Amino acid sequence: MYRRRLAEGLPIGSGLVEGTCKNVVGKRLKLNSARWRVRRAEHMAALRCLHYSKLWEPYWAAKPTAQAA
């Protein structure tokens, strides 16, 4: 797997992921006067990652609506 990723020029370390988490999630958690419960912080992080990865629209399009339930 590593050999193939290297050949394709893709990263193999976790530094890219860790840096992205720091910027996408960490900055939001550290806003002035922000207080977070763990569960809510996890939900916020998931939503921020959806937005950052450009998967926001497909995610919500795949969710069943309240009317369909």
Fraction in helix? 55-70%
Helix/strand order, N-terminal first: HHHH
Uncertain residue ranges: none
**SS-based structural class?**
mainly alpha
Mean pLDDT: 85
Q: Enumerate how many helices there are, as a single number.
A: 4
Described by strand count, sense and barrel closure, the largest sheet is: none
Cα shape: flat
If you compute it from the alpha carbons, what radius of gyration comes out, rounded to the nearest whole angstrom? 16 Å
Q: How many runs of DSSP E, i.e. beta strands?
A: 0
Give the amount of beta strand, in percent.
Answer: under 5%
State the oligomer: single chain
Distance between the termini: 42 Å
Commentary on this structure:
The chain is mainly α. Helix content is about 60%, strand content about 0%. Helix 2 (about 15-30) packs across helix 3. It is flat and about 45 Å long.
